[in-house]
Every structure is written in structure tokens, then in C-alpha cells.
Automatic annotation (TrEMBL):
Entry protein name: EngB-type G domain-containing protein
Organism, scientific name: Thraustotheca clavata
Sorted UniProt keywords: Cell cycle, Cell division, GTP-binding, Magnesium, Metal-binding, Nucleotide-binding, Septation
InterPro entries, per the entry: G_ENGB_dom, GTP-bd, GTP-bd_ribosome_bio_YsxC, P-loop_NTPase
Organism lineage string: Eukaryota, Sar, Stramenopiles, Oomycota, Saprolegniomycetes
Start and end residues of each EngB-type G domain: 61-243
Entry GO MF terms: GTP binding; metal ion binding
Presence of the UniProt keyword Chaperone in the record: no
Length: 274
């Protein structure tokens, strides 16, 4: 039996650019913050839209992280794993459902969520009518165009690790590049492939995707079934949303207040001894 990629020593983050190292783990208090956001409120669908006109998209300034990929690549399963839910249902007929699904994560009761995960309809479905393909381009293309630079912070492009990156994946990455949209590659279903086959998939990817300027240099390896790599994607989502930066800012303000209080106490003590 082939040795699975999920054996001991599994690494959920890999660099596909020479000279670029995998970032160090986030700090424990940051990890706790990520857990609080994903555990704050029960996730729910904010909207399921078959239109991406500006007037139809959800309002507000909630950071959005989108998930894209071929039909049946595992988008719904990954969103369920990230939110510890069974909220998203996979379609048994690839290409049939042409909707954007917005899932709320975190926040407070009665207010906006901290972030929204966006499940985009799958691409690359075989033998699809031209009208269906055109509908997909209108729906997804307009959403990306309208949201990039505002709500949309990043697109995770999911690739089945058993199949590797295909021509239709490259077509979608080209679209993201043309629209100046940041994206990051996620290899799914790594529990279903041997370690050597996975290394071959990654090596092939290194040669084919390092031309993209908008692509993140680190790829994720995940198994929703085995819950591998899910924690790392949660951390990345909160980082890309800008929420970790706001946490650091608050921590800096707290440190400054503590420093100023200590300085004031020292001055008061010096005056009392004079």
C-alpha cells in the first residue's frame, strides 16, 4: 500500500517560489483570537445570489474570502471544515448550481459578521451549454471585479491534488491576474494521494504557476475529511482579512498605556522622595 501524504511529518504549508520561506506560526494569543472569531457565533448563510450586480451584493464593509475551483474539488467540504458545520451542501450535478453563497463568520448578535466566506460556483464542468458557461463568467467575473480592492481580500483557488493543475485552472488564474486580484492555491484531498505523488504534484505546480504576480508564494495542503491544514487556512483567512493587524494595533495601544502608566508611577515616586 502506498504511503499516504498524511503520515507523520505532514506539512500543511509549502513554498512554490525559490528563496521564499514558509512563514513562522502565528503567536499563541493570535491563535486564540482566530479561534474566538470562528467560534463566536454559529455560521450561517448571509445570501445565495445568482446575480453579482453591485446593487445585489451584500452591503457593508465585511472582509470577504472567496473559494474557487473545479466542480467537486471540495469547496463546500472545506468551508464546512473551517466553520465546524454542515452548512454547505455539495451539488451532485457539477455545473448545475450557479450561485454565490455568502457565509457569515464571527461578529456579534445583531451586527455584522467579522468576515464572510464566499463559495463560488465551480468551473470547468464538462459538456456544459455555452449559455451556462456565459452565465458563470458574468456571475463570477462581475463579483470579482466589483469586490476586488474593497470587500474581497483574497481568493483561494482549490486544486484536487490527485489531478494537479489543469488548463481550466490556469484560465481562472489568468482571469484573477487580469483583474488584479490576489489568490492562493490550495491542494485538496491530500489524504487520497501518496506522499510521493503529492511531491510530484507540488513540483509540477512550481514550474507552472510561478509566472503569476498576484499569486501568494505559499500553497496550502488540506484534507477536509481528516481535518488536515484547516487550522492553517483559518489563520491565513484572519491574517488576510486584516483582523490580525487590528489585534496587533490594540495590543500596541495597551502596551503603550501600560508603559505610560509605569512611567507616570515612577515620576510620582521620584517626586514623593524629593
Amino acid at each position: 500500500m502506498a504511503k499516504r501524504a498524511t503520515s507523520n511529518g505532514f506539512r500543511a504549508l509549502r513554498s512554490v517560489f525559490k528563496g521564499v520561506d514558509v512563514p513562522p506560526p502565528i503567536k499563541p494569543h493570535e491563535e486564540d483570537y482566530v479561534k474566538r472569531i470562528f467560534g463566536a457565533l454559529k455560521p450561517q448563510r448571509m445570501a445565495s445570489l445568482n446575480s453579482s450586480e453591485k446593487a445585489d451584493l451584500p452591503g457593508g464593509d465585511v472582509p470577504e474570502i472567496a473559494f474557487a475551483g473545479r466542480s467537486n474539488v471540495g469547496k463546500s467540504s472545506l468551508i464546512n471544515a473551517l466553520t465546524s458545520s454542515t452548512l454547505m451542501k455539495s451539488s451532485k450535478t457539477p455545473g448545475r448550481t450557479q450561485q454565490l453563497h455568502f457565509v457569515s463568520v464571527g461578529g456579534k448578535i445583531g451586527g455584522q459578521p467579522d468576515i464572510a466566506l464566499v463559495d463560488m460556483p465551480g468551473y470547468g464542468f464538462a459538456q456544459a451549454p455555452k449559455a451556462l458557461v456565459d452565465d458563470w463568467h458574468r456571475l463570477v467575473g462581475r463579483y470579482i471585479k466589483h469586490r476586488t480592492g474593497n470587500n474581497l481580500k483574497q481568493v483561494f483557488v482549490l486544486i484536487d491534488s490527485r489531478r494537479g493543475i489543469s488548463a481550466v485552472d490556469h484560465d481562472f488564474m489568468d482571469l484573477l491576474e487580469d483583474l488584479d486580484t490576489d489568490f492562493q492555491v490550495v491542494f485538496t484531498k491530500v489524504d487520497s494521494i501518496s506522499g510521493s505523488a503529492l511531491e510530484k504534484t507540488i513540483a509540477t505546480a512550481e514550474k507552472s504557476i510561478n509566472k503569476y504576480m498576484r499569486m501568494h508564494p505559499i500553497v496550502h495542503l488540506v484534507s477536509s475529511k481528516e481535518n488536515l491544514g484547516v487550522r492553517e487556512i483559518r489563520n491565513q483567512i484572519i491574517h488576510m482579512s486584516g483582523l490580525l493587524s487590528s489585534l496587533q494595533t490594540r495590543a500596541q495601544r495597551r502596551d503603550n498605556r501600560e508603559f505610560e502608566a509605569a512611567q507616570a508611577a515612577m515620576l510620582a515616586k521620584d517626586k514623593s522622595t524629593q
